[in-house]
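It is time I had a proper look at our fold encoding. Can you supply me with one protein entry, sequence and fold together? It will help me judge whether the discrete encoding reads sensibly. Leave the record below and I will have a look:
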Amino acid sequence: MGPEKADKLDRVSAFPTKRFFVEMLTRDISLEDAVLDLLDNCIDGVVRTRGASAVNREKQPYAGFHAHLSFDQDHFLISDNCGGISRELAEKSAFMLGRPKRGAKQKDVDADLPTVGVYGIGMKRAIFKMGRYCEVKSTTAHDSFRVTIPEKWFGDESDWELPINDVGKPGKGGTDIRIEKLDKAVSRRFAKTGDFQELFSKMVGQHYSLIIQKGFEVKVNKEKVTPSPLVFRTVQLDKNYKAGIAPYMFKGTVEGVEVSLKVGFYRPSVDEDELEHEGEAQSSYDEAGWTVTCNDRVVLYRDKTRLTGWGEANVPSYHNQFIAISGIVHFRSNDPLKLPVTTTKRGIDAGSDIYLQVKDRMRDGLKKFTAFTYRLKKDKNEKTKLFNDAKSVNEDVLNAMSTHIKWRADPKIKHSQVFVPNLPTIEKNDSLRTVRFSKAAEDISKLGVFLFENSNAEPGDVGERCFDLTLAEAKSK
């Protein structure tokens, strides 16, 4: 055997296959998350355009920027004005399946920026998830080009390059991604008869609530998405604060990541008769729990599991009696590798040391309010008074209030501070007893009309009014 033949036999192929990237990368990601990946790219474009300082400090850093999405059974299109992709970046890395390693003197395009992209697969994975033909057109102040991913490319293992052509003139930065030849399942979901638009718009309003509130505009099939902001109930917070309903708060720097946390009541706690109303309970259930953000992107929404501290370390498991409790944690870093987020950018890395340290504080806050919820059951009148004194405020207002309160150094986490509210003491009133009974909904509705001229009057209010009228009659005799 000659040396030439020996060399040939001593090698095996280790080349990747397109089937792996096209099929396997998309198997474990939902259609919703794939589209959200494209929205993340738009936001990252704004961050590159505005810079870290503006995005981290300004109140409306995303004002003037937008992403507009449209889709039906034949196409998907996302169009933004978020800065665009330079031709140089397109040729060197933007369309690669993964982010290439930089040399010692080379700086990553997102170095020192509060983005969430790490691995460089989001756009490609979204395209592969949806269809088999794609055009990406991007314009910057210096160039304008189009990259096409033709249908035949997906099945040609020998061709890994994509055609790029100059189109139009340089101008305002923006990118259009159009996908056609949709997967059959995707086409059905995008069809106008489907419910994808409504569900997806709600998801965007949740996951991009902070960013939309900071000026970013998202439209889905020409309909503007509205955010789902978080509010807290609190009394006035200032240097004279002594006691009253207010959130538990934490702020500081953990392992180089800026962290802020708030947990408390966003509405009055519920009574037993309220919990019997499935509609009321379900509506509030959707708002309770922990929301976690990384660089303004929501990666966990209204979680009520052990992942966020419920049901562990002496914290009770979530139950509808805790329906009034919600919290939010913000992680912010100019190095996305430090953030406790999964590769899908829609989940928390539960084993992250940063997250485990912050989770201790999440549990501390939960214990404060779950215990207080039990105490609130002792006196309904006192509960009503306490929540009447506490107003609903958004995070911006709460942040402004918090500059005037007395924080204390956190004993467990360096370079951090905590504010623990002094929740009022509620003494048990031994003279009070709870009266509970069940009656037909139709009869309660009739009494609601008779007593309050309201067929939808709360059963508890109807029962209490009936009791008071009967008691007054009994006393008169």
User: Anything to note?
Assistant: The domain at 232-419 is CATH 3.30.230 (Ribosomal Protein S5; domain 2). The first helix runs from residue 3 to 9. Residues 173 and 446 are 62 Å apart (CA to CA). The chain has a mean pLDDT of 87.
